[in-house]
Design a protein that fits this description.
The protein is mostly beta strands. Strands 1, 3, 4, 5 and 10 form a 5-stranded antiparallel beta sheet that branches. A 4-stranded antiparallel beta sheet has the order 6-7-8-9, with no helix packed on it. Strands 2-12-11 form a 3-stranded antiparallel beta sheet, with no helix packed on it. It is built from no helices and 12 strands.
Length: 123
């Protein structure tokens, strides 16, 4: 049986899935850099993006709170919720939606794909 070419994957970044890295995706980290339950900021086209690993699935949201633009990567990640370090607003990293906290906007999300040990985020 001949090897199959990579196929596009539009699911959140689960390690090991096939993907098409064209279409505006840029490499931002290796899978090994981010253990489950951790997060870090990465640069995508000069913008700060929060990359989070939740139980082996990678998510990306803008690294700025919708309330006062505080840096979310300085906050705390508990499960799929990141807490803003400034006024303790909480956002779901899967959707960018405000979970609780002061009046705030949702945070934009970015599509994530994983190919082998490389994590890609769509511009």
């Amino acid at each position: 049986m001949a090897p199959q070419p990579p196929q596009p994957s539009r699911a959140s970044g689960k390690a090991g899935g096939p993907l098409d890295i064209g279409d505006g995706f840029v490499p931002v980290a290796s899978v090994a850099e981010l253990a489950p339950g951790t997060m870090k900021w990465v640069a995508v086209d000069r913008r700060r993006v929060l990359l989070a690993n939740v139980d082996g699935t990678f998510y990306a949201i803008r690294d700025a709170c919708g309330h006062r633009q505080a840096v979310l990567s300085r906050g705390t990640l508990r499960g799929h919720v990141v807490e803003c370090p400034l006024h303790f607003a909480e956002f779901d990293v899967r959707s960018g939606k405000l979970v609780s906290g002061p009046i705030s906007e949702d945070v934009p999300t970015y599509e994530v794909l994983v190919d082998g040990d490389v994590v890609y985020v769509k511009r």
